[in-house]
Amino acid sequence: MMGSKEILGLSTSDATERFHKQLTLIEKQNKTYNAFVTVTDKYANAGYPSLAVKDNILVEGIRCTSSSRVLENYVAPYSADALHNVTTHLRVIGKTVHDPFGAGGSGTTSDFGATKNPFDTTRVPGGSSGGNGVALALEQCDFAIGSDTFGSVRAPAAFCGVVGLRPTYGLVSRHGLMDLAMSLDTIAPMARDVYGVAYLLERMANKRYELDKFSARGLKIVVPTELLDGSAKEVRDAVEKAIATLTDAGAKRVDVRAPNLRYAVPSYYITMFAEFSSAMQRFDGLKYGPRADGETPEEAVSKTRGSYLSEELKRRIFLGTYATRKEHANKWYAAALRGRTLVAKEMQGLLKKGDFIVTPTMPVLPWKIGELTTPLQNYLMDVMTGPPSLAGMPALSVPCGRTVGLQIIGNRFKDAEVLQLGHAYERLRDSK
Amino acid sequence: MKVGLEIHVYPRTSAKMFCMCFVRAEDANTSVCPRCTGQPGAKPMAPNRTAVEKAVVLAKALGCKLEVRATVLRKHYFYPDLPSNYQRTSTPIGREGSFLGVRIREVHVEEDAARYEPRDGTVDYNRAGVPLIEVVTEPDINSTDAAKNFVDEFSRLLHYLKIADPSSAIKADTNVSVGDTRVEVKNINTTHGILAAIEHEAKRQTELLERGGTLVQETRHWDETKGRTLASREKETESDYRYMEDPDLQPIDISSVRVATPEDTFAARKRLERAGVARDAAVAVTEEQEFVALFDSLSKRFEPQRVAEWIRRDLRGELNHRTLTLEQSGVKTKDVERLMDDALSEKITRHKAKQLLRELLDKKESKHTTKASKEDVEKAVEATLLAHQDVVQRYREGKKEAFNFLLGETNRALGFAADPKEIAKVLKEKLNM
Ligand SMILES: [Zn+2]
To answer: How many CA atoms lie within 13 A of A34 on its CB side?
Structure first.
């Protein structure tokens, strides 16, 4: 398999040839894996390596559905800010499938069909940026841009054996990313190796990152033990092995307890419900998508929202509306904000004890499609990816097993350092 | 009778509240962008600084205590004039002020909604996101005369402090209670309408009570053409707007807003009267800061009443004739001052002075009405680009709405005398150089 650096060094004609091969591959495999919802017009002369863009990020002139029927025929009138310096060097090959509006962790709930895990089509690819993970793993594309609110690039990165970074909140412009929970949403890069992810982030954030000249020697790695203990055995074993690889290279392991991290999932879900219900107000059937008739305007809006939004979206909108009602606002939303502060403080405290926090990305291996039946079972899968999101910290998922991710978390705006450690780990892992 | 007002003022600024679209446009839906039409994924820009500054100036002039910061809230309700079905409105910028003995509850900023035409089912988004300053009074106005005085003086203050253009409309809601029952009247769109609505509503309530009827607490709508308030068709329900801090925006830092506090209209008037100026002339001179500046300079050399009278009768007369303020006329204050100096020292006759003044005004005016030459357009475009380099930078980064802003600014600099298509062409050429 070619590395990102090599792909970026391809000649114009070689890049075009590779691009065309990938288009053929998508055509052949999409029925099975369903990674793409829209494939961009075939470039006669692509000239650049391929980029997949999650379908909740706008690319001017290309349909942007957010995997939801309410935007089935919406053509983006502008491009996301984060793409401006990326699309000058990469060619958009298509828009990828995800859980509608990023609201889901399995990658299987798109209104246009489930996406399948690249290693086992009976299992989930992880979400919400599932299409990106699958497309990268199957080499249907070479680079991908997704979004991460509470683990949406890290979960599919782990389950599909690729790399995904949630950048520091605020580092990359969100203009052009559809809303899920605005106080937490990030546009986030994915690739098959850390080099590729760093390349994308450089262009998205207008920075330069030096990956080499970095050594694990003397680093302190903080390991919250309850997160490790709470994981499935296969996950625990793979992550322990990865930590050992780092300590063998001279890093020091610091085991800690972090009880307040348990507030992450409930705090997040209430915050997200509230913000999401506000953001989704605009989909009233008057401006976008299909529209139901009604005797009164109110009835038409209500019927449209009732008929064309998925169950999970409606659940989140209802709960958010409930949580922000005048008589409940303090009870729920304010409590969620307090929980969020507790988690952020705990994370900041952990990073005073060492340089990085290391956890599994997902607590389990990819589950069978349809296996998790209640919303709560799904929500609990975010237990690892949630805390850095609430703390606004950068978090990288690097494969440390076929479908297991090692999550590396650093202080706010230490994205470069997180990438450097990920890159160093990748090399140690591959040299074994 | 107890009357309270909620007055909405369009502050003088060229850009919308959360994007760079121009605040005015001739054709429907031409001054719009992804942000002010609420496209999926579009994020607001930081609040328009000028609008915030104007709100601070107004809050100070109304004697309000300034807040350290104001938060932008989302007010949720479904209506076709709201692009995202929520309206952004700030928490108070100042509160607890007083104006003519009427307590001011608060001053805040918000964005206007689009213009919805229920009969045709059309929406014009040119107005969506246009900045508004809202002033809320306590129900301390106790007569229609007091209301008239309040509205007149408030309008004068707005114009004098350059918060709003004299030509720009004021929108208002009012609450009127003759007895113990409070009735809200919404949808008032002119200064004249405010007084007419209060008068009509007070009369309606008094007559109803005299006939032995009972008043209900309700919201009524002002019908300007019929000159009466009408009961709202909508059922009166306890609305819950689910106010929420906008997660896309940082709080507005009011403490960092530095604005000069000019002398207000009352203080200026008092000063003029003390200098021996008659009341009517003092009122006229304090309509415009430019008049006061002329007065201050010339009254050092000439008798104050003569100076004030010249401004009131001759200068203001000529301007009123053209429905212009001195600032809008584009005539330099220095030129007017030289002319007045000659007139007041009787170097030239009053007749001659008026003739010269007319020439001065019409020369400037003519420039506004004739078509701008290609050269004028090019010069104006260059000046705009130079003055707004940050916006040019944004345009180069791919922010297309920056173009509309530059177009609007150039158009305005040319006094709307050039064909916008011509400006757009020149602008594109210069930007792509
Ligand atoms: Zn706009």
So the answer is: 19
Report the mean per-residue pLDDT for chain B: 88
Domain that holds residue B403: 374-431
B327 and B227 part of one domain? no
pLDDT in tens, B238-279: 578 899 999 999 999 999 988 887 788 999 999 999 999 999
> How many whole angstroms separate alpha carbon B200 and alpha carbon B195?
8
Burial class (CB in 10 A: 0-12, 13-18, 19+), A391: buried
* Domain boundary pick from B361, B391, B416: B361
> Does A274 sit within 8 Å of B86, measured CB to CB?
no
Dihedral angle sign, alpha carbons of residues A330, A334, A338, A339:
positive
Q: Cβ–Cβ contacts within 10 Å for residue B336, how many?
A: 22
Ligand 1 center–CA B33 separation, angstroms: 4
Among B361, B386, B420, the domain-final residue is B361
| pLDDT for the residue A393 | 98
The C-alpha of B55 sits at a distance from chain A's nearest C-alpha, in angstroms, of 27
Please name the residues between 3 and 42 in chain B that touch chain A, using a CB distance below 8 Å: 34, 38-42
> A283 CA distance to ligand 1 centroid (A)?
19
Q: Which amino acid is at A160?
A: C
Domain covering A4-205 assigned CATH 1.10.150.120 in the classification: no
**A346 and chain B: CB distance < 8 Å anywhere?**
no
Render pLDDT for B5-62 as a digit per residue (tens, 0 to 9).
999 999 998 899 999 899 888 889 999 999 999 999 999 999 999 999 999 999 999 9
The Cα A151–Cα A383 span in angstroms is: 9
- Does the active-site annotation cover A431? no
| Token pair recorded at residue B339 | 């002319």
Q: Is the pLDDT of residue B366 over 50?
A: no
pLDDT tens per residue, range A216-265: 889 999 999 989 998 999 999 999 999 999 999 999 999 999 999 999 99
Q: What is the pLDDT of residue B377?
A: 87
pLDDT tens for A286-330 read 888 888 888 887 888 888 888 888 889 999 999 999 988 877 777
**Contact status, residue A119 vs residue A158, Cβ threshold 8 Å:** no
| Domain count for chain B | 3
CA B215 – CA B205 distance, rounded (Å): 7
3-state percent helix, strand, coil for chain A, nearest multiple of 5:
45, 15, 40
If you measure from the C-alpha of residue A359 to the centroid of ligand 1, how many angstroms do you get, rounded to a whole number? 43
Query: Is the CB of A272 inside 8 Å of chain B's CB atoms?
Result: no
- Those residues with Cβ within 8 angstroms of residue B166's Cβ, 6 or more apart along the chain or in another chain: B159, B325
Per-residue pLDDT, averaged over B220-239, amounts to 75
Q: Which of A50, A79, A110, A128 is catalytic?
A: A128
Q: How many CB atoms lie within 10 A of CB A79?
A: 23
- A67: annotated active-site residue: no
CB within 8 Å: A326 and B242: yes
Partner residue facing B84 (CB), from A174, A177, A281: A281
Could you tell me the pLDDT band of residue A43, with boundaries at 50, 70 and 90? low
The answer to the question of residue B152 being in a domain is yes
Percent of chain B whose predicted confidence (pLDDT) is above 70:
96
The amino acid that residue A189 corresponds to is P
| Tokens of residue A14, six digits | 């070689």
Place of tokens 């402090």: B161
Kindly name the residue from A4, A110, A129, A152 that is annotated as catalytic. A152
The overall pTM is greater than 0.80: yes
Instruction: Look up A215 and say whether it is catalytic.
Output: no
| B381 and B326 within one domain | no
ipTM rounded to 2 decimals: 0.92
Q: Are residues B270 and B252 in the same domain?
A: no
